[in-house]
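Record passed on underneath.
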Amino acid sequence: MGNLAPQPDPVAVPGPVKKRRWLRRLGYVVAGVCVLFNVIAYCQARSMTHFSRGGPPMPRPEHLSLPAKLWYGLFGVSVPRPENHETPVDHGLEYSERTVEVGPGVKLELWWVPALESRGFVIALHGYGDCKSKLLTQTEVFHELGYDVMLVDFRGSGGSSASHTSLGVEEAEDLEAVWATVSEEARGRPIYLYGRSMGAVAALRGISRGQIKPVGAILECPFDRMSTAIRRRCDLVGAPRFPTAELLLFWGSVQLGMNAFEHNPVDYARDVTCPVLLLRGADDPRVHQSDLEEIARNLPTSPKVEVFAGCTHDPCVQHDRARFREILADFFQNDPPVIPAF
């Protein structure tokens, strides 16, 4: 008789082997998801920091439809390079154009709007995705109060060179170059900084670096930390904060050659010893009251904080021009006597 012992089923697979195969497949899935998340984050960081040529202005994330938010969340939105569509002449102001070289291949375009009888200078710094023409209404108010205004196009915007933004890091270097030019024009008159959003952050960083010493700074809606700004942007499009924000910060750092995790205005504030005026819209979804409060706590001086009820992330001057002018006049009241312009 032959061997009647039971033979193993050639199709059957031992339990440990099945488990290893299952774990291997799970690992492939997890690795694929991680790669996909990083690819999406890389593209998102690129679209946020590198402007495209042409196209309509990008709508604010909170105004996008659900399908548009999904598309934005997966592929990012092409942000057109900010362009100036009006000049000071359109606001009844005379001006001259200047250029400043920051470094190899980086030139900034400036508009100088002189006052008839100058009390001093204001360097005006625009926000993310904007350019200097967006500050012309504020310039009208500064001009009415007797101040020359130097409006700045940061690199990547308006008439300046390049097509990228670093959300206030390299823009602080732009400010330092502009400061050297304005110091010559000011002839001993006081120089103030006015910055909106990213411009306010660049002002804080510029002062912290020790190269510029304004007599005062007017900072409208600065975020407290870069990580906070990115997390709030995630909220506006309905994307999960984690790990989206961390991946965006990492890939943005890689692409721009900086450390976005350390780009924190609350830290810059510790080195700002000049008087500071902080402004914010009460309904601003991007910059909360807690941002201003933490920046204010870190400032060595006691800043004045003004909140405009009913205002979002739009310029405060557009919401209530009369109050904006009154607040600035009060902030400027300790200036030296007016010096006639030459």
The beta strands are 96-103, 106-113, 117-118, 120-125, 147-152, 191-196, 216-220, 276-281, 304-308, 339-340. The longest strand covers residues 96-103. Residues 122 and 192 are 5 Å apart (CA to CA). The mean pLDDT is 90.
